[in-house]
Amino acid sequence: MRASFLGGVFYFVAAFIPVFLAYSALLIAPKMVKPLLEAEGNRHQEILPTLILERTPLFAQVMFFGALLSAILSTASGALLAPTALFTENVLKRLYPHMGDRQFLLTLRLVLVIFTLAVVTFALASDASIYQMVQNTYKVTLVSCVVPLVAGIFWGRATAQGALLSIALGLSSWIGMEIYASDGLWPPQLVGLTFSIAGMIGGSYASRAPHHAAAPTGEAH
User: Is residue 192 part of a domain?
Assistant: First the structure.
């Protein structure tokens, strides 16, 4: 538990390094930053790479873009391997409990190939940037996985039916808001999170067996 919290703190601190550098560019090179901020599209994402290319030596450029490429490859591999293992272990293996180790390994490989093809197809067909795709990925996690995970760990009344309802309501409400009211007062992901919480609470209480009335004092059992 302490390692998880400590890792979260380190991750939070490390995430602020590129943010700090990008904001520093406003002071170091305001003439370079202003056109990128005012340009249409996602040109603001070019602030940090442009700063590195124009204001740092070759060694720092190699280190920066090498680390950037490493982070992209690491994120991509993790994004493919994690859902493959989770889906195969927690869904397919439960549907086919007599699956042997050899069959399980083959299933893992097939699911990985299918997920990879689906992701590549989606990426090629989408006009969104890498940043927007990653952002949408974390939105899916927020509206579907966070509440069942937290409730399953910390809430003793959580049930499987509540988790399923939480996932269904969170995803459906988020997708609906993204399609019909993406610029509404509330961001779609917060609407999805709210419905996910409501589904977890409502589904868990509705699916729990009612407590039996206490037997009268002195009654034989």
Answer: yes
